[in-house]
Design a protein that fits this description.
With about 210 residues, the protein is an all-beta fold. It contains 1 helix and 14 strands.
Length: about 210
Amino acid sequence: MRALVVVVVVMTMGVGVLLLIDPFSAMFHIESRFPTDRQITASYVNVGLVHLEDCNLTVSFINDTSLVYAMDIQLYSPTLMSSAFQLTVENYTGFIHVTLIAAVRIRSFNLTLGIGKPYSVAILQGVNLNSTVTYSNGAVLGKDLRYEATGVLRSIFLEDVNFTVGGLTVRVGISSMYHPNMAHIYVDLPPGLNGEFGCMSDPYPYIMHDEG
């Protein structure tokens, strides 16, 4: 038996997104793109995922400047979309704010982001997550990654990204009861670029550099 995937495509960015459908399913695909008929005033996108539990989470980037986000969500059991999570999108003068708050356990969550803007990504109040966050494929750096969840975190930074003056700030489990039981950090910096990595349990940061 093939599972039914509910697809919701949001083509415009307004102050809030109202979805007039409330499908019943265990799998959802939600996608949003920048409008092509007017100038985008937002300088970055803020994405927050809240209250994920017992979830395999993947965050990645693709070489697509028109994509704001694509979410592929699989629940543990079918339910109404409005009962599974709350998704809000708000368009401010300087940034776009996207928040998804889970109301039930989500088995897997694949968040795909574009490369048209820098992203501020926050995973908050997560419980028992198996997470992989990968910056690659031309992702535009310049904002931050805030991760506050229990479980396992794999954070991967590859050299095929677009660096900005602001760089990328990563905060893992800071000032929160939600911190990973295990974190794997892999960084591949481009030649000649330096960086800094620190953690709360060690007051001395590690200086990373590429000898090439």
